[in-house]
Amino acid sequence: MRPNFLVIGCEKCGTTALCAMLGRHPDVFVCEPKEPHFLSFNYDKGWDWYESLFEPGQNALARGEGSVSYATDEYEELICQRLSEHLPDIKLIYIVRHPVKRVESSFRFLHSGAHPYGVLLPLDIGKALAYRPHMVRTTLYWERINAFRNHLPDNRILLLFQEDLKTQPRQTLDKCFSFLGVEPGKLTDFKSEAVNESKHLYRDTQLLRYIRRNPVLSKAWHTLPWRLTHWLEPKLRKPWNDNMQIHWNAAARQKFLQHIRPDAQQFLQFCGKPMDYWDLRS
C-alpha cells in the first residue's frame, strides 16, 4: 500500500500541525511516523518497509506522510525522480510561512539540540545563516516548488500558507480535503493544533556552549555523575520561545531579505497573494 499524497512543506512551516489536522478526517490516513523520510535519506530501507507504514490506512481514500526533507534543495531532484518512477499520480501539499519567521524558528530549533548543530551553530543569526546556507536555500519557496512543477502538473500541487492555517483553519483544511478527493463536511473539529512549539525549546548559555565546544571540558563534563549533570544543565540553559525576539545585525537582515525577496514575491504572485502579505522590508 503506497501513499497518494505527500505534505512537503519545509521545516518549521506547520507540516506537523497540518498532518495532525488532516489525519482527523475519517477518510484520510497519515502514517506513523509522520516523517519517514523514505524518498530522501531512508530509501535503503526498501519499498516493503515504506508500504508497510500505510497498511493501517488501506481503506482510507487519502494516504500520506509529511517529511520536511523532501522540500530541500539537497534532495528535491532525487525526490522528483523517485516520484516520477514510483508514484506518478501522487499529489503534493506544500506549506510555507513568512521567510524571516521561518529561519528564526529554524534557528531556535537548531540551537535547542545540544549536538551537533546546537553546539556548532553560531549564536548570531547572521553568522548562523552564513554557516548553514541551507537554511536560506530552503526558504526560497518559488525555487523549491518549481523543481516539483517541472515534473508534476500544477493541478496535483496545492500551495498553502501557515498563516492561513492558523487564522482560517476551516477554509484551509476544506481546500486540502477537496484537493485530496475527500468530503470536507465529514470533519467538524477544525481547531488548529500547535505542535513542535518553540516554548518547549532551550538554548545553551555562553558558559555551557564553551564547555561543549572545548574538548577537555566536554570530556570532563561527560565523566560527571549523571545526577549532577542532570541538575546542572537546566541551570545552564535558557528557555527560548517565539515571543523572545532574535536580534539581527542590520546588515545581515538586509542581506537575507535582498536574497529571498524576489523569490518570495514571485511565489506570492503565483499564489494570488498581495505583495504585502509578508512584510519583507529591510
Give the full name of the CATH homologous superfamily of the largest domain: P-loop containing nucleotide triphosphate hydrolases
User: What is the alpha-carbon Rg in Å?
Assistant: 20 Å
What fraction strand?
Answer: 5-15%
Number of strands: 7
Structural category is alpha/beta
Summarize the entry for a quick read.
The protein has 14 helices and 7 strands.
Please characterize this protein's 3D structure.
The chain is globular, with a radius of gyration of 20 Å. The chain has 282 residues and is α/β, with parallel strands linked by helices. It has helices at 15-22, 47-52, 76-86, 99-112, 117-120, 125-131, 134-138, 141-149, 162-167, 169-180, 206-213, 215-223, 226-232, 250-270, and strands at 5-7, 28-30, 62-65, 91-96, 157-161, 202-204, 237-239. The mean pLDDT is 88. It is 45% helix and 10% strand. Strand 2 (28-30), helix 2 and strand 3 form a beta-alpha-beta unit. The strands form 2 sheets. Strands 2-3-1-4-5 form a 5-stranded parallel sheet, with helices on both faces.
